[in-house]
Write a structure and sequence with these properties.
Layout: E1 7-9, E2 13-15, H1 20-26, E3 35-38, E4 44-47, E5 58-62, H2 67-76, E6 81-85, H3 92-102, E7 108-114, E8 117-122, H4 131-155, H5 158-187, H6 189-195, H7 199-229, H8 236-262, H9 265-289, H10 294-320
Parallel strand pairs: 5-6
Antiparallel strand pairs: 1-2, 3-4, 6-8, 7-8
Helix pairs in contact: 2-3, 4-5, 4-7, 4-8, 5-6, 5-7, 7-10, 8-9, 8-10, 9-10
C-alpha cells in the first residue's frame, strides 16, 4: 500500500499523483480518460477501462464431469456462456437433466444444441433487478410458504402441502440470482455502482439470502411432515402452541428483513426481543410432544424443530442490521 498526500494547485483545485507502475500496467498515457466512481462508503474507485466493451465470460464443461454441479457453479461465478460438450452423443437423459437444471437458473436459455454440444447463455444482466428487490421477493414467497405450511398442518391439507414443496424451487432460483449479483458486484465496480451497493452490504445480503432460503427449507420440512402424518390429527394443545410459535417466527422474519433493508436497529432490537418469547414456547412445546405416542411424536418434534430454526435464521438476519 502506498500513501500519497493530497496537493493543491491554483485557487481551489486538489490533485494526487498516481503510481507510475500502475499507469504502466494499465497501458495508460497522458490524456487517457479514467472513470472515477464515488461509492456509498466514501471511497473512490478508478476505472481506466470503463469504456471498453466487456466480452462475455465463457466456460466449457465436459459432460463426463459432475456437470449438474458445474453448471450451477459457473452460473454463480458469473459466466455468461456455458458450453457443455461430449466426445460422444449426449444422451436423452443428460439433455433432460440439463434442461431441468436451467429451469432453476433465472435468465438462462439454450442458444445452441447439437448431438455433442449444448450452449447455454445467461440473458439477464446482473443490474437488471436491484438486490433489495430480490430479497423482498424471496421473503414474500418464503413467508407465504411458512404461513401455508401451518394451514396445511391445522387442516390436514396434503394438496396444499405439496404445492409448498414445489414453491421452494422459486426461492432457490432467486437465491442463485442474488449470489450471482453479489459476485458480479464484488468483481466489477460498475455493477456495484449500478446496484447502489457496497462490499459490506454485499456480505450482509449474501448471509440474509442464505437465511431466507433456509427458512423456505424449514417450511418444506413442515409440509413434508404433514404428508407423513397421513391424516393423523395433531393434539389441539400442541397445535395451538405451534401456531403461537409460528406467528412469533413470522413477526421476527418480517421485522428482521425490514431492519436490514432500512438499516433500522430499533426494528432489529424488537425482533431479537421476540426471540426470547419464542425460546420459552419451544421448551413448553417439546415437553408436551414428549408425552405423545412415538409414531406421531417424531413428526411433531421435527415440526417444532423447523419452527425453532425459522426463529433462529430470522434473528440472525436481524443481527445484520447492527
Amino acid at each position: 500500500m502506498e500513501v500519497r498526500r493530497l496537493q493543491k494547485t491554483g485557487g481551489s483545485t486538489f490533485f494526487i499523483s498516481l503510481p507510475k507502475q500502475w499507469i504502466k500496467n494499465m497501458g495508460l498515457k497522458q490524456g487517457d480518460p479514467i472513470a472515477i466512481y464515488i461509492v456509498k462508503d466514501g471511497r473512490l474507485i478508478l476505472d481506466p477501462r470503463y469504456g471498453e466493451h466487456e466480452q462475455p465470460k465463457t466456460a466449457v464443461i465436459d459432460i463426463e464431469q459432475d456437470f449438474s454441479r458445474e453448471i450451477i457453479a459457473k452460473y454463480l461465478y458469473g459466466y455468461d456462456v456455458i458450453e457443455i460438450k461430449s466426445k460422444n452423443r449426449i444422451s436423452r437423459e443428460d439433455r433432460k437433466t440439463i434442461k431441468n437444471i436451467i429451469q432453476r437458473l433465472i435468465g438462462v436459455e439454450i442458444i445452441e444444441e447439437n448431438s455433442r454440444r449444448i450452449v447455454l447463455q445467461c440473458l439477464i444482466s446482473p443490474t437488471s433487478l436491484p438486490m433489495d428487490k430480490s430479497l423482498k421477493r424471496m421473503y414474500l414467497i418464503t413467508s407465504k410458504m411458512h404461513e401455508d405450511s401451518m394451514i396445511a398442518l391445522a387442516e390436514n391439507d396434503t394438496e396444499l402441502a405439496e404445492t409448498i414443496i414445489h414453491r421452494d424451487e422459486e426461492v432457490d432460483r432467486l437465491y442463485f440470482l442474488v449470489v450471482r449479483q453479489i459476485r458480479a458486484a464484488l468483481q466489477n465496480p460498475y455493477v456495484a455502482r449500478k446496484l447502489e451497493t457496497t462490499q459490506l452490504e454485499c456480505l450482509d445480503y449474501r448471509i440474509a439470502a442464505k437465511n431466507i432460503e433456509a427458512i423456505a427449507d424449514c417450511a418444506v420440512t413442515i409440509a413434508e411432515k404433514v404428508l407423513l402424518l397421513n391424516g393423523k390429527k395433531v393434539p389441539q394443545n400442541i397445535l395451538e402452541q405451534m401456531q403461537k410459535l409460528s406467528k412469533i417466527a413470522q413477526k421476527i422474519h418480517k421485522l428482521a428483513l425490514s431492519a436490514l433493508l432500512k438499516k433500522n436497529t430499533q426494528l432489529a432490537v424488537e425482533a431479537l426481543n421476540c426471540k426470547q418469547e419464542a425460546i420459552k414456547i419451544v421448551e413448553e412445546l417439546n415437553a408436551k410432544i414428549l408425552k405423545q405416542q412415538l409414531n406421531i411424536a417424531v413428526h411433531l418434534s421435527a415440526i417444532a424443530d423447523a419452527l425453532n430454526k425459522i426463529v433462529t435464521y430470522a434473528a440472525d438476519i436481524a443481527d445484520l442490521a447492527f
